[in-house]
Amino acid sequence: MTIFSKIIAREIPADIVYEDDHVLAFRDINPQAPLHLLIIPKQEIPTINDIEEQHEVLIGKLFTAAARIAKAEGIAEDGYRVVMNCNQHGGQTVYHVHLHMLGGKPMGWPPYTEHMKQG
C-alpha cells in the first residue's frame, strides 16, 4: 500500500482539491511551482509500464479531471504543465501512477528565458 492509497483511504490527511469516483487530486506538500497538485487514480497502478488496455479509460479520466481542476484553480487560460514520471530514472518516488500539475508561472521547456520572450 502506497502513501497515495493511504490518502485515498483517509488514513493520511491531504489538502484535497478534487474527487470523483475514479480520481483524487491534492496539493503537493513540497510544491515546485505556485500551484503544484498531484492527480491520482483511485486504483493503484504502480508505474506507466503497468498501464494496460483495461486502464485506458481510467488514465483518460486523469486528464479530464486535470482540465476541470485547471479551470477551477484559474490556470487553464494561461496554461500549465502535467507530468507523469516513470521509475527511478524518470524521477518517480511513489509507485502509484500520478500526474503532477504545475502552474501559476511560465513553465516553458527548455526553461523560460529572455530570448524566448522576443520570438
TrEMBL record:
Domain of life assignment: Bacteria
Catalytic site: 98 (tele-amp-histidine intermediate)
Protein name from the UniProt record: Histidine triad nucleotide-binding protein
InterPro entries linked: Histidine_triad_CS (IPR019808), Histidine_triad_HIT (IPR001310), HIT-like (IPR011146), HIT-like_sf (IPR036265)
A single GO molecular function term of this UniProt record: catalytic activity
PANTHER family xrefs: HISTIDINE TRIAD HIT PROTEIN (PTHR23089)
CDD domains for this protein: PKCI_related
Residue ranges of the motif Histidine triad motif: 96-100
Cited Pfam families: HIT
SUPFAM superfamilies documented for this protein: HIT-like
HIT domain boundaries: 3-112
Organism per entry: Proteobacteria bacterium 228
